[in-house]
Amino acid sequence: AQLSTPDMKLPIQYALTAPKRLCSIVKNLDIAKVKNLTFLPPNLKKFPCLKFAYDALSIGKSMPAVLNAANEETVKLFLEDKLKFNEIPKVIKKVLSKHTPQKGNISYYLKIEEWSKQMVRSLVC
User: Fold this and answer.
1) Contact in structure between 62 and 96 (CB atoms under 8 Å)
2) 52 and 34, same structural domain?
3) Lowest-confidence pick of 3-17, 48-62, 95-109
4) How far is residue 11 from each of residues 3, 16, 21, 63, 86, measured CA to CA in Å?
5) Is the same domain home to 56 and 32?
6) What are the φ/ψ torsions at residue 44 (nearest 5 degrees)?
7) What is the extent of the structural domain holding 8?
8) Tens of pLDDT along 64-110?
9) Coil, strand or helix: which one is 67?
């Protein structure tokens, strides 16, 4: 895990300098001065794609690959202004519902990745 003082300079620096990394421009976190860290369960209604990830991992087989490819394609379409942000989970959910998970070799996973991306495009475009 990475802990730091609350400051958006660090993620912005990472985004602007990727893939290289510069020395941090934020003050180091003094862990001895941190009194408490509070961890709460995630709100799966607020973050439905996280629930999809938990479910895909639980189901296993090809479901995580389908989720990953659907996520990649929906985000790509969002960045191209072809999909609204709040529609991303709706499209991913539809793709996942149309897939029957199976085990397979690398060739199968490459085909299922393309199927997933094509399914996203057919639902959006």
Assistant:
1) no
2) no
3) 3-17
4) 12, 9, 11, 30, 23
5) no
6) -75, -20
7) 1-39
8) 999 999 999 999 999 999 999 999 999 999 999 999 999 999 999 99
9) helix
